[in-house]
Amino acid sequence: MIKFPSYAFITGLYFSTLQFCFLILLQINISSAYLTYMIITGSWLAGSLVGLWMRSLNRHLGVGLGLFCFYGVYALVTHLPFSGYTLAFSALGAGLAGLWAGQFFIFLLSQYKEVDRLFFHENNGFLLGIIIFFVGFTMLGREFVFWAPMALAGLLLLNHTWIKEHSKPGQ
C-alpha cells in the first residue's frame, strides 16, 4: 500500500498543469491549430516513454528539468511569437519535461510495489489538475500559466521533504 498517497496525487496535479500550461502557451503564441496540440501531446508522451528507461533521473532533477524547459519555452514564445522555429523547440521542451512522467511510475513502483493504487492517486490528481487549470486560466489568464507550474513544483518538492522527514526509521 502506498504510505504517502499525497505525493502521487500532487504529482498528478503537477503533470496536468504543466501539460496544459504548455498547450495554452503555444496556442496563445504560436498557433491554435490541431497540429500544435498533437505535437505537444506526442512530444510529452515520447518523453514519458524515454523516461521509463532512464536510470539516473531522480525526482528533483525531473521536476527541475520540467520547470526549466517550460520557462525556457515561455521565454522563447513570448519573445518570438508566431515563429515557425518555436514549435520545434517547444516540442523538444515538452518532451524533456515529460521525462519525469515516465520515470515517476518506475521510481515509486520500486518503493511501493502496487501500480494500481499509485495510478489511482496520480490519476485523481491529474483530473483535479485539469479542472484547476481551466478555472485558474479563466480567472487569471497568463499569470496563472506563468505561476502555476512553479507553485505546484514547489508544493511537490515540499511534500517530498515532508515524506523524507516522516519516513525515517525509528519514528
Tell me the number of structural domains: 1
What is the typical, i.e. mean, pLDDT?
89
Q: What does the largest sheet look like? A: none
Shape: globular
Give the distance, in angstroms, between the N- and C-terminal Cα atoms: 19 Å
- E-strand count: 0
Q: Low-confidence parts, pLDDT < 50 over ≥5 residues?
A: none
| Alpha-beta content class | mainly alpha
Strand content: under 5%
Annotate the secondary structure layout:
Elements: H1 5-29, H2 34-53, H3 59-79, H4 84-97, H5 99-112, H6 115-140, H7 142-166
Helix pairs in contact: 1-2, 1-3, 1-4, 1-6, 1-7, 2-4, 2-5, 3-4, 3-5, 3-7, 6-7
Describe this structure in words.
The structure is a single chain. This protein is mostly helical and 171 residues long. The chain has one domain. It has helices spanning 5-29, 34-53, 59-79, 84-97, 99-112, 115-140, 142-166. The model has no long low-confidence stretch (mean pLDDT 89).
Features:
171 residues, mainly alpha
TL;DR?
The chain is mainly α and 171 residues long. It has one domain (5-163). The protein contains 7 helices and no strands.
